[in-house]
Design a protein that fits this description.
mainly alpha, about 90 residues, 4 helices
């Protein structure tokens, strides 16, 4: 079982880096929870492959810093649709 978890952590990190994916997108793609994605990248992967973990963490940090902007845009779209503008 441990080999599966290590392989999953590596696959998750590669997906995040290649697709510039968020934790939520990654969780949906792999059929796991957001907390599992986070734990795989921040704890498990650091022990398996620290360089890959750092690259994935960098993408996640950028996504985290931008999430308030995406949330605002989503809210704007919602209200534009309700008013029939878009």
């Amino acid at each position: 079982m441990k080999g599966y978890i290590e392989e999953r952590a590596i696959n998750i990190a590669n997906y995040i880096i290649e697709e510039n994916a968020t934790v939520r997108q990654t969780a949906k793609k792999f059929g796991i929870s957001k907390s599992t994605v986070h734990k795989d990248v921040t704890e498990r992967l650091v022990q398996i492959n620290p360089a890959l973990a750092a690259r994935a963490r960098k993408v996640l940090d950028v996504n985290k810093s931008e999430r308030h902007i995406r949330g605002g845009l989503a809210t704007r779209e919602k209200y534009l649709h309700q008013k029939g503008i878009v």
